[in-house]
Each structure stands twice: as C-alpha cells, then as structure tokens.
Design goal:
Helices cover 75% and strands 4% of the residues. The protein is mainly alpha-helical.
Length: 283
C-alpha cells in the first residue's frame, strides 16, 4: 500500500509494507494451539478404537485410513481458523483494487499456515531430539562393548566362524552375532548370501537341536516373516507420508480461502458480490 506525502518538491508516493506480521503470527499461534488440541483429541479417539483383542476394535487398515482422514480434517479446521484470523486482523487496504486486496488477504492466510507448519515441525523435532539424546547417552554408557556394534564386527565374525563355536558361545553372544549377520546382509541385497545362510542354519541346528532340514525350514520361515514385517513397516511409513502431504496441501488451501473470507468480512464485502462481478470491476 502506498502513502502520498506532500513535500516542497511535490507529491511523493511512499510504499508501506504489504505484510501485517502481527496478524500472521496471531493466526499461526491460533492454528498451532488448535492443532495441539485436535491432536490430543485424536490420540484419545485412537486409544478408544484400538484394542489388543483380535475380535475388537478397528482393523489396521481402517485405523490407518481413519488416521489419515483425521489428519486432513484437523488441517482444514486449524489452518482455516488461523487463516481467517490472519485475514480478518490484517490492516485494511485503502486505494487498492479488489483483486489486489484479495491477493494480500490470501497471502496472509498462506503465510500464517507456513509459520504454523514450521513451528509445528520444530515442536515435533524436539521430542525426536530428546530420544536421540537418550540413545546417545545409552551408547556412551555402553562404550565398553562398542566394538560389538562396529560396522567391522561382521567381518570379524566371518574370520572367527567355526563349526564347533555355537556350542562354546553363550546365548547372548550367538544372538548378537546373528543380529549383526542379518543387519549386514539385509542392507545391500535384502537377502542372505549362500555362505551366511548355511552358517545360520548350522547355528540354529546346534542351538535348538533341530535337524538340518528343520533348521533350514525355520530359517526360511523367519526370514520370510522378517521381510514381510519390514515391508509392512515400509508401506505404513509411505502411507503416513502421503496422508501428511495431502493434509498440508489441503491446510494451505483452507488457510488461504479462510483468509479471503476474513478479509471480506473485515471490509464488509463478503457475500455481497460474487467472483465474476469482482473480476469485472477490477478490469
């Protein structure tokens, strides 16, 4: 918005800032607070519909879809409120065309959504940082046995393998060796090499007393189950990311639309003229 000032040399147009950051921050604060409230409500509803009993509660698919839809509804409500406040509290523009006023209103709603999203991401990152710090502290306390978790530990295991070793190892040592073997083998090709598989079968047979055929069957069944569980976790993470992306897009649109409405209510023009008449007047 421009302000005309009369000077000795004539009239000079001074452009004033087009962004009312007070309104943006107020809308963002309201959106964050309402998001926190709706998240608490969503957690309560989630615990209400979930059940450890197989014949009760919602299925995993229904729970996943319901959670995604709740994310979208939550984004629409919280972003809509924040955008409306940002548009309604923005300084009234004088001397600008209607289209420019509407653009600035929607821009304020979008900015309020953006600030709220950034603040929400920071708040969600704080618990993750705390968990990471706890994990780091645990790693420091276990520094005496850090060599067991070194990336080179698997190569040391390969050098020291022996057919008689499983009988001499403790169960904890055997578990650690198998865990390192599976972790290293699953990472590059999602499967065990022939040598690793044969050694794993021998180790299971020696520890459990199963025959070679039964031990091989158990290894194959466990590896198949592990791959299935990992694939389910991958799909669940993918679906969650997609739902969150949709909720962010819809939240941005809701904030911009609500800010447009808030600006119209502020100027007393909302509901009096339709979009076609507004565009015609701006031309």
């Amino acid at each position: 918005m421009e302000q005309v000032v009369d000077t000795s040399s004539g009239s000079v147009a001074i452009e004033r800032p087009g962004v009312s950051w007070g309104a943006v921050l107020a809308g963002a604060a309201a959106a964050c607070a309402l998001t926190l409230l709706l998240l608490s409500l969503g957690m309560g509803l989630g615990f209400a519909v979930a059940s450890p009993w197989g014949d009760r509660g919602a299925s995993s698919t229904s729970f996943e879809i319901g959670t995604g839809l709740y994310f979208i509804v939550m984004a629409m409500i919280s972003s809509g409120l924040g955008g409306y406040l940002a548009g309604r509290l923005r300084r009234k523009s004088v001397g600008l065309e209607t289209v420019e006023v509407q653009f600035r209103d929607t821009a304020h709603g979008f900015l309020a959504w953006a600030v709220a999203s950034i603040v929400g991401a920071v708040l969600l990152a704080s618990p993750a940082s705390s968990l990471l710090g706890s994990a780091t502290g645990g790693a420091v306390q276990a520094a005496a046995s850090a060599s067991q978790f070194s990336p080179l530990s698997n190569y040391a295991d390969m050098l020291l393998r022996s057919d008689n070793r499983p009988d001499q190892q403790s169960l904890a040592d055997t578990r650690g060796e198998i865990t390192r073997l599976l972790t290293t083998s699953f990472r590059p090709n999602s499967d065990l090499s022939g040598t690793d598989r044969d050694y794993l079968v021998k180790t299971v047979a020696a520890r459990t007393g199963l025959s070679q055929a039964d031990a091989e069957k158990r290894v194959n069944d466990v590896l198949t189950q592990a791959k299935s569980d990992l694939d389910k976790a991958r799909k669940a993470a993918m679906h969650t990311a997609i739902w969150l992306t949709l909720s962010l897009f819809i939240g941005a649109f809701a904030a911009a639309a609500a800010a447009w409405e808030g600006g119209g209510v502020r100027d007393g023009t909302w509901g009096r003229v339709n979009m076609r008449e507004t565009l015609a007047r701006s031309r």
